[in-house]
Design brief:
Distance between the termini: 17 Å
Oligomer: single chain
Strand content: 15-25%
Strand order of the largest sheet: 3-2-1-4-5
Largest sheet: 5 strands, mixed
Structural class: alpha/beta
Order of helices and strands: EEEHHEHEHEEEHHHHEHEHEE
Radius of gyration: 20 Å
Length: 348
Amino acid sequence: MAIILAIETSCDETAVAIVNNRNVCSNVVSSQIQTHQVFGGVVPEVASRQHLLLINACLDQALQGAGLGWPDIEAIAVTVAPGLAGALMVGVTTAKTLAMVHQKPFLGVHHLEGHIYASYLSQPELQPPFLCLLVSGGHTSLIHVKGCGDYRQLGTTRDDAAGEAFDKVARLLDLGYPGGPAIDRAAKNGDAAAFKLPEGKISLPQGGYHPYDSSFSGLKTAMLRLTQKLKQSPEPFPVDDLAASFQDTVARSLTKKTIRCALDHGLTTITVGGGVAANSRLRYHLQAAAEENQLQVFFPPLKFCTDNAAMIACAAADHFHNGDRSPLTLGIQSRLAVEQVGQLYVTN
C-alpha cells in the first residue's frame, strides 16, 4: 500500500490529493471556472498565475484533510503531460521541490492515464483488460487498457474533442461557459428528437467509414446554420430543444463507436473518463447499449470526471508499486501520446 501525494495543474483546476493505493485520503480541487467565464474559455497565462496563487493552500488543505504529515507520504506525483505548458510548470516545479526537500521518490504522470485510473477509485477491484472511452475538453479517445502503462489507442477524433464541441455549441446557444454542464441543464427541458442532426463519420480511402474515429466539425456546422436560421424566425428560439438534440446526437455517436469497438476487440468491460463522462445523456445511452450487448460499463463519480489529483495519485501508486520512478530532470510536455507513458519512468 503506497501513500502518494499528487498535484494536478494541467489546465484550469489546481488540485492536490493524497491516495493510499486506491483509497482517497483527501482530494482538494480549486476550480478556476469563474475566473475564465468572462473570457468564454481558458486563458493559459491567467490559469498559470492562478495556480501559483492557490497551490500552497491546496497542499496544506490536502495534508490536513488526510490527517497526515510529510513523514507519512511515500512519494510525490504530478501531471507532466499533456496540458498547458505554463500551468504544467507550476505543478511540476512544486512537486520536484517537495520531492527534494522531503527526500521522496518523484513520479511524473500522464494526464490521460489519470483519467483512465479515475474508474479505479470507485471500482478498486477493476482489472485490465478493458476499453476506456476518454472524453474531455481536449481529448476524445477509445483506449485499449492492457495494464499499467500499457495502452493502445483504437479511436480518436479527427477535429475538436467532444468537450470542445460542447463549448462551441453552448456559445452558439448563448448558454455560457463551460458548455458541457450548461447544455446538459438546458437539455433536460428539451426534446431530443426535435431536430435531426448529422453524426460525424470519417471516410476511408477504400470506401466505407472508420468504425471508431469521431468528427464533430459537421455537427457544429449544422448547429451553426440551424441556429442562424431559427434566430431569424419570429417564433421563440428553441434553446432547450437545440441543446437536447445536439447532446443526444453526440451521445449516440460516441455510444455506437464505443460498443462496436468493445465487441470487435472482445472486451467485456468499458470505463469512461474525462469531463464529458458526467453528461447525463451519454451515461443513459452507453449504459443501455452495454446492457443490451451483455457488457459492463463503469462511470466514475462526478467529482472524478473533471480534472483532479486523486486520479493522478492512483495511477502513480500502481507505477510506484511496479518500481517505476521519474528522474528529477523530467520536463513537461504539452503533447504526448498515451502509448508513450513509459518514457516518463525508469524502473528500479
